[in-house]
Amino acid sequence: TKGSTVAPSQGQPTHIISLEWPCVVLSPAQAIVVYTDKEVHGAVGSQVTLHCSFWSSEWVSDDISFTWRYQPEGGRDAISIFHYAKGQPYIDEVGTFKERIQWVGDPLWKDGSIVIHNLDYSDNGTFTCDVKNPPDIVGKTSQVTLYVFEKVPTRYGVVLGAVIGGVLGGVLLLLLLFYLIRYCWLRRQAALQRRLSAMEKGKLHKSVKDSSKRGRQTPVLYAMLDHSRSTKAASEKKTKGLGESRKDKK
């Protein structure tokens, strides 16, 4: 009882004793979350992987279990085709999948995937993955739809991705070509600049050399002129002396 009242005796004051019990609120366990692809495509005679993973607030338990169910296209009832429990896979011995299912999951990696071999048109339908990881057992299943074709069609997303990839690749190639041409042009300009600088330095050196040579030749020319003048004066003087001596003889 939440509280109790004691009846007073005659002539005694009334005392009320109330007993309050503490209120304990238990938080609900977090639900397990299961993930699968929305749809998968396969070709007749090939194989397809049905991926299943999960998230749980608990560590992976030794009692973890995976269950796969299959509902044919247009059918109402789903049948169990695969079960994993106590570390062992179990393929249900009913239906058309009993010899075509392969367990490829790993509970430690939170993976409950299976592979279906030798696909047929009759395999079209919805596959449901259910995971229990005690004490986390409350959650919603996840479904993936299988479509079997004679030849797997190219999906729009794949085509769009290929187109975008091709455009980006072309743009990157053009940018690379542009930078390569620019690099070669800059390198050639630098080489021409070095050649022009070398030529200018050579011309400057030559002009300095010529000017120094002309500076050295000037005194020599003056010396030669003085020498020629002195030689001419001496010859004139000698000629004049000879003329005078001839006159004296006469």
From TrEMBL:
Keyword Transmembrane helix tagged? yes
Q: Which UniProt keywords apply?
A: Cell membrane, Disulfide bond, Glycoprotein, Immunoglobulin domain, Membrane, Phosphoprotein, Signal, Transmembrane, Transmembrane helix
| Statement: the UniProt record of this protein carries the keyword Disulfide bond | yes
Q: Name one GO cellular component term.
A: plasma membrane
Q: Which domain of life is it from?
A: Eukaryota
Membrane-spanning parts: 156-181
Its annotated compartments are: Cell membrane
Its primary localisation, in coarse terms, equals membrane
**Where does the Ig-like domain lie?**
22-145
Query: Quaternary arrangement and interactors, per the entry?
Result: Homodimer and homotetramer.
Question: So what family is this one in?
Answer: Belongs to the myelin P0 protein family.
Could you identify this protein by its name?
Answer: Myelin protein P0
